[in-house]
Structure to design on (174 residues):
């Protein structure tokens, strides 16, 4: 499974490399991956919860559908309603689903809001600014070198003129 996942993530359709050499993941694939992860977690944790709860006499989780409902409600932090875990294993599974569910659902919401509302990616702007700053610094260094060479040439010319003037004044005095 990890090899398939690695191939999928490294495919050309999953990301593109910008002019700064940074991988930018395409939103639709990140969204799809998060959604599939959420579905997979709900199904797996629902089954695990059902295993813990089904034999307990006070359990409200009696079917796989009840367990899926419980996982969906816990992942979205809405609450359980009449269905809730009564065993320690069921409660622990729900707690883990809270953590993963809130993270994935929050990420999906942020991703959707970013695309719908058109928030700009400040990381891209920062990379562009760093690139521009590097170009400016390179030009500044080149200009400083040119100025230093011109100063050297001016000083050499000044020394030559002063020497010529001294030689001229020495020849006039003699």
């Amino acid at each position: 499974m990890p090899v398939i996942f690695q191939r999928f993530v490294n495919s050309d359709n999953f990301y593109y490399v910008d002019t700064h050499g940074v991988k930018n993941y395409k939103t639709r694939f990140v969204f799809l991956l998060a959604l599939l992860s959420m579905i997979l977690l709900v199904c797996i944790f629902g089954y695990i919860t059902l295993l813990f709860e089904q034999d307990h006499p006070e359990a409200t989780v009696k079917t796989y559908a009840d367990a899926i409902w419980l996982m969906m409600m816990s992942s979205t932090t809405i609450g359980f309603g009449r269905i809730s875990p009564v065993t320690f294993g069921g409660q622990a599974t729900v707690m883990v689903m809270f953590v993963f569910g809130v993270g994935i659902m929050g990420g999906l919401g942020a991703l959707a809001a970013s695309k719908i509302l058109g928030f700009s990616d400040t990381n891209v702007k920062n990379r562009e600014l760093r690139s521009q700053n590097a170009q400016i610094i390179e030009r500044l260094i080149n200009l400083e070198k040119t100025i230093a060479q011109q100063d050297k040439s001016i000083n050499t010319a000044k020394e030559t003129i002063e020497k010529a003037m001294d030689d001229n004044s020495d020849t006039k005095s003699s």
Remarks:
- The chain has a mean pLDDT of 83.
